[in-house]
Amino acid sequence: MREHRIPNVDDDRLTLSGTRPAVCAVLAIAGIGMLVAGLVLGWNRGDELKGFLASYLVSFCFFLSISLGALFFVALQHLVHAGWSVTVRRLAEILAANTFCMAILFLPILGPMMAGNSSLYAWSNPAAVDADELLQWKQPYLNVPFFAGRAVVYFLIWGLMARFFLANSTRQDDSGDPGLTRRMEKFSAVALILFSLTVTFAAFDWLMSLEPDWFSTIFGLYYFAGAVVAFFATLILFALALQQVGLVTQTITTEHYHELGKLLLGFIIFWGYMAFSQYMLIWYANIPEESVWYLARQTGPWTFVSLGLLLGHLLFPFFGLLPREVKRRKLLLGAWAVWMLVVHWIDLYWLVMPTFAPEHLPFGLIDVCCILGVGSLFLAGLLWSARSRALVPVKDPRLDESLAFENF
Amino acid sequence: MTAIPVDDNTVQDPTRRAPLVLGDADLASVTQTVCEIAERPRPPTSWYVAFAVSVALTGGLFAAVGYLIVTGIGVLGNNSPVYWGWPIVNFVFWIGIGHAGTLISAILFLFRQRWRTSINRFAEAMTLFAVACAGVFPAVHVGRIWLVYWLAPYPNQMDLWPNFRSPLLWDVVAISTYGTVSALFWYLGMIPDLATLRDRATSRWRQLLYGLFALGWRGSATQWHRFEWAYLLLAALATPLVLSVHSVVSFDFAVAQVPGWHTTIFPPYFVAGAIFSGCAMVVTLAVPARAYFGLKSLITMRHLDNMNKLILGTSLLVGYAYGVEVFMAWYGGNMYEAFAFANRALGPYAWAYWLMVTCNVIVPQLFWIRKCRTTPWIMFLIAVLVNVGMWMERFVIIVSSLGRDFLPSSWGMFKPTAVDVMMLVGSFGLFFTLFLLFCRYLPMVAMAEVKAVLPPDRGPAPAVEVD
Amino acid sequence: MDQAARETDSKQVAGLLAEFDGPQALKAAASGVREAGYTRFEAYSPFPVHGIDAAMGRRRTLLPWLVLGGGIAGGLGALLLQWWTNAVDYPYLISGKPWFSLPANIPVVFEAIILLSALAAFGGGLALSGLPELFHPLLSCARFRRATTDGFFLGIDASDPQFDESRTAALLRSLGAGETELYDRPRTEQKVPRPLVMAVVVAACLALLPPLWIARVRATRSASPRLHLVSDMDFQPKYLPQQSSPLFGDGRAMRPPVEGTMAVDQRGDDPHLLRGEVEGQPATTFPVAVTSDRMKRGRSRYDIYCATCHGLAGDGDGITSQLAFEREEPKWVRPLSVHSQVVRDQPVGQLFQTISDGIRTMPGYSSQISVEDRWAVVLYVLALQRGRHATLEDVPTELRRHLDTALQGDARTPDTER
């Protein structure tokens, strides 16, 4: 019989001590450069920055979703007193802490709005509101000051919660005090309530209100489902990348990858469930005020994107991740993680873009600039949080359980 | 039975895992504790009393159904515009109850929540009985029940096929699949325990009957290997199934255009509500059952505590759905939708709405308090109130939306008849009759599974318990 | 058959059973037995012991593949069924949805996938475990009964090539077995109790009765009306025409028209037009203008109301009649051909009366066809008769050459009368 060998955390390299602040700075500057390039390209199109802002919103929501998924994961692990996930929890805490970084990255969306540019959200244009009774009805909710205020509240809540988990967990690295675990567990229930409300309304505000006439009660859950998928894919890649440079090679085992793969698969199905529920109900009832949103996504080239999502975001990865062996082989699992991130980005692109370009696929250089720009800044923030602390909660009371973890 | 000291295993200490089974239970005593309930010649008198009451109520149900079949569905309170009255309310209510069994058996199994082992068996049984109760209502309310086979796609002389694009047909397929798979899952898990009863049987008849249903189980490694795979696969299949079933039930409403029915959050919202009500029913049954049958060391306070946390969590999910619905009724700017929700809160059925909100969202918040989660009578009370609230939820959705739709000229109110009331009460009778029979003759706790989670010094595997 | 095997057969020894202390000891013993070269042995425990499959050298089960197969079969089957029934064989429009509506088909496809996979998991799991197997030598071994409570056993089958009573027992003891015991094949077959067998036989016989009865009823003819197990709406609490009722003074259920009222379409009192009567006799002339347009109108009414029985050409061979003969309906009377002499002799007024009031089994059509249209039908019937019995002289000279070419094109006789 093949005995399960329990790895030892002391044998492992657990810190990114070699990373200097300069690396972060270079990444940040490169990111800003990319965004400026995108801005210039967008400016030259003469569409009041509409193309640039929409593309930026996609990339922003993409990277934000990773951090939000991480925040959810951390809080959930504490809520259920999970033992298996301890070795990967610090990575999730670091990812979640990037909500601070995302708060700053929200300014390019908020700034132009405050300055009177209403090309992104039609409801922020007073002329449009005057002409549309429905927008007047929604004005108590959809107006620029309230929108900005809500965004501040969301980021405060996310940022403080992420900070709370990361700080307490890091403090435990020194003290090993089980009371800290207890404290985080106690707070996690409240954290999840706050999380679910803020994510729902953030999705309503930033994505659903792009088409202010349209509404769907499940929309918050839809964004949440995609966020968790993106998070698990990122976490797998994060761990693989760290192991690639010789870190945490002992502590994060095949068993953990297997488990993450299962959760990734589970949330892919969950995403499919949300997507189908929304589509099915709107398609079947066929009420014009709702179905118009899908009509735009079922005409012209967007038809193929919609079908591509059905296949690429649900059916292919479902069958691809089903076999046990795929989830236990780093290369295959990593490949599927990359795939899922790509289709998740397409999913967000599909949510945003048909509003601005119903007849063609506007993919171009601006999108590339935005992805790379926001991505570099996200990575810079990640490395900044990661560089000064252990990548595994070394004194978590349940660490041994996690190290001994085995799938049945 | 061994006297087992009941200590507290509800405190969560991060440095060690709380025991799942209390006292000094070992392999033999687990078998003894569970089997002797099914083996004793006479159950306690209270069992007979409860059984008599339940059978009487079941008789009421059959009488009401018989009267309905002979006379026609005019005997129900259903009217125009409330075409779907109590039968559908009761149907959705019972199907919802049925969801907790599969949740506890399958979903918690996949999440390696090993505390489920003590309660999964009777939660599964509860699922089956609830599905049986649920099945009564759509079957009889079609009117001409002897033609109910028309729902099946079979070649016929009329050259017709059922309409597969109709949510009502999805319902038939989903419910029958759910009933079948739940029964298989329940039975498969019970085979090793039936074998235990067979091997302990003293009378020829018991040996024969338990032996017949144990199918010759011997507990060989080969059999366990196949068994575990079959069980795991059934759990993996039951998990999406349980989500799909109540989603399909929600489609019955949500694909329509009736205000208050058509909203995209319905599928997950119904699933959460179903699990919520099912968990409440598990607590309702577990609290008296563990006391009467001496199972306190197996179904510990920790189990109840965890169930209560699940109730709290699902209550919050249901509250979330209520909130988002109300927000979207305003945000959507559709006057009918806005009216439907204003009417629920302020209209003639406002009492039902506020009863629902109180029972489903406000009362369960008591479970934030540890004392409420660990005091049997308090949790019992809350669980009963949750069941009331969840029944009211279906009543509110169905009756208030149908009674007040687009045209004020076709508004109406719903009034249940005596037959309606008798069928509802009688369905509880059927449910408890089946449950009491189950307690009497079948292993109420999954013995083989409990044995696998006993502390290592008392028998088995290194039980790294994950919760 | 080798020596050892024959010996064990004659002794009816089925195998050797050894008890161990717990799961770990059992696992170690299984491993030891395998290393000693045994292949036909089993470990028995009251709960699954993890890692014992590897210790025994068993391979992973094929069950997941069976389940995958079940799922694929279920999904494709359900899709095919829905496509065939709703889009091909019996297409009809529901709420504007396409005949083949994939989103609406997904719930059923999904449930079918789960159902067939679950059946495969259950059936396959049992079949691969060799269950049900109600009689097994071990089950009659008293000690083995503890295997389902707290006993951990290892059983080596006598058919194993390595099996030898004493050597195998020694091996098991060296591996830590507490006690070993030979278990035998039962000398006599286990018998199912007689009452149970009888009950099953009786139940099976009784179950045969309903299908046999149905078969008998289907195969024989009976003059008595059918048995109404469920009356549906065959008998309704309502009055039929000409029935009596105690509700009214005159005892009639049907009420005469109220004084001074007139039925719809009962215009004036023109017996010629309304009843086809002239001085009490059937009219021989039309009360309406005879025009080509009216005849065409008559043709359209005839095709709708009359042709189903009388046939498009009036030969009495309409689709209803054909079907009735095919089914050998005992009460069916072939409708008269309008070309028969007896009909040709009738004056137009009589034809009108027949259409209005019906005759023999033919119902009256006055409620469905308006007065003018009935006369139009009469006109069309005359046209049919005239056409059937026409001679070459009836065709205007300038049109005869068309007739010639038509006849050359079709060699058959124009007379289609059978």
Backbone shape of chain A: globular
**Tally of DSSP β-strands of chain A:** 0
Q: What fraction, in percent, of the residue positions of chain C are helical?
A: 40-55%
Order of helices and strands of chain C: HEHEHHHEHEHHEEHHHHEEHH
Briefly, what is this?
The complex is a heterotrimer of chains A (408), B (467) and C (418). Chain B is an all-alpha fold.
Secondary-structure map:
The complex is a heterotrimer of chains A (408), B (467) and C (418).
Chain A lengths: L20 H24 L5 H30 L6 H12 L1 H7 L1 H8 L11 H6 L1 H6 L5 H32 L2 H29 L12 H26 L9 H32 L2 H10 L4 H20 L2 H5 L1 H23 L12 H23 L11 H5 L5
Chain B lengths: L26 H13 L5 H27 L14 H12 L1 H12 L9 H22 L25 H34 L3 H11 L6 H34 L11 H27 L8 H31 L3 H12 L3 H13 L7 H5 L1 H28 L14 H24 L5 H6 L15
Helix pairs in contact in B: 2-15, 3-5, 3-9, 3-14, 4-5, 4-8, 4-9, 5-6, 5-15, 6-7, 6-8, 8-9, 9-10, 9-14, 11-12, 12-14
Chain C lengths: L2 H9 L1 E8 L2 H13 L5 E4 L7 H5 L6 H27 L12 H27 L23 E6 L7 H10 L5 E5 L9 H26 L51 H5 L1 E2 L2 E2 L9 H19 L8 H8 L14 H4 L3 H10 E2 L2 E2 L7 H18 L8 H13 L9
Antiparallel strand pairs in C: 1-3, 1-4, 2-3, 5-6, 7-8
Provide a descriptive summary of the structure in words.
The complex is a heterotrimer of chains A (408), B (467) and C (418). Chain A has 408 residues and is mainly α. Chain A is 73% helix and 0% strand. Chain A contains 17 helices and no strands. In chain A, helix 1 (21-44) packs antiparallel against helix 16 and helix 4 (99-105) runs antiparallel to helix 8 (144-175). Chain A is globular and about 65 Å long. The model of chain A has no long low-confidence stretch (mean pLDDT 88). Chain B has one domain (27-452): Up-down Bundle (Formate dehydrogenase/DMSO reductase fold). Chain B contains 16 helices and no strands. Chain B has helices at residues 27-39, 45-71, 86-97, 99-110, 120-141, 167-200, 204-214, 221-254, 266-292, 301-331, 335-346, 350-362, 370-374, 376-403, 418-441, 447-452. The longest helix of chain B is centred in the middle third of the chain and has 34 residues, at 167-200. With 418 residues, chain C is α+β, with helices and mostly antiparallel strands. Chain C has 2 domains: 10-187, no CATH class; 271-398, Orthogonal Bundle (Cytochrome Bc1 Complex, Chain D, domain 2). Chain C is 46% helix and 7% strand. Chain C has helices spanning 3-11, 23-35, 52-56, 63-89, 102-128, 165-174, 194-219, 271-275, 292-310, 319-326, 341-344, 348-357, 371-388, 397-409, and strands at residues 13-20, 41-44, 152-157, 180-184, 277-278, 281-282, 358-359, 362-363. In chain C, the strands form 3 sheets. Chain C has a 4-stranded antiparallel beta sheet with strand order 2-3-1-4. In chain C, helix 9 packs across helix 13 (371-388) and helix 12 (348-357) crosses helix 13 (371-388). Chain C starts with a helix and ends in a 9-residue tail after the last helix. Mean pLDDT of chain C is 82; it is low at 1-10 and 411-418. The chains are: A mainly alpha (408), B mainly alpha (467), C alpha+beta (418). The interface between B and C is large, with 71 and 72 residues.
